[in-house]
Amino acid sequence: MLKNNVIEDTKKVVKYLTNKQAWDYEFIRYSNYRKMIANICGYSKVYFIRKIFLYMLEQELFIKKKTDKRSYLYKFKNPNEMKKIKKTITITF
Fold first, then answer.
1. What is the pLDDT of residues 2-51, one digit of tens each?
2. Is pTM, for the whole model, over 0.90?
3. How far is CA 43 from the centre of its chain?
4. Which long-range contacts (CB under 8 A, 24 or more apart) does 76-85 make?
5. Where are the domains of the chain?
6. Residue 78: partners with Cβ closer than 8 Å, 6 or more residues away
7. Which helix (H) or strand (E) holds 75?
8. How far apart are CA 5 and CA 48, in angstroms?
9. Given 38, 86, 87, 91, which residue has the most CB atoms within 10 angstroms?
């Protein structure tokens, strides 16, 4: 039952972030995304919010960047860019 809620809530969050064009926010902290997810889904428990965020990370909806400290910054990927296939050709002589 919880798995279904996570998937449904993730769809809500992705729709919201896509409408807001969150990829323009650049790299921001998890705490900012936590506040957005709490506002969208109406959860107050950090456990559920974190579970949704981790599911979104598994789906590779974010780009993760390590800071000089022991923390990470996250950037929401543009859904249009996710569908592009990147191929590189290397020629050596």
1. 566 888 999 999 999 999 888 888 899 999 999 999 999 988 889 999 99
2. no
3. 17
4. 76/17, 76/22, 76/23, 76/25, 77/23, 78/23, 79/14, 79/18, 81/23
5. 2-82
6. 23
7. strand 72-76
8. 10
9. 38
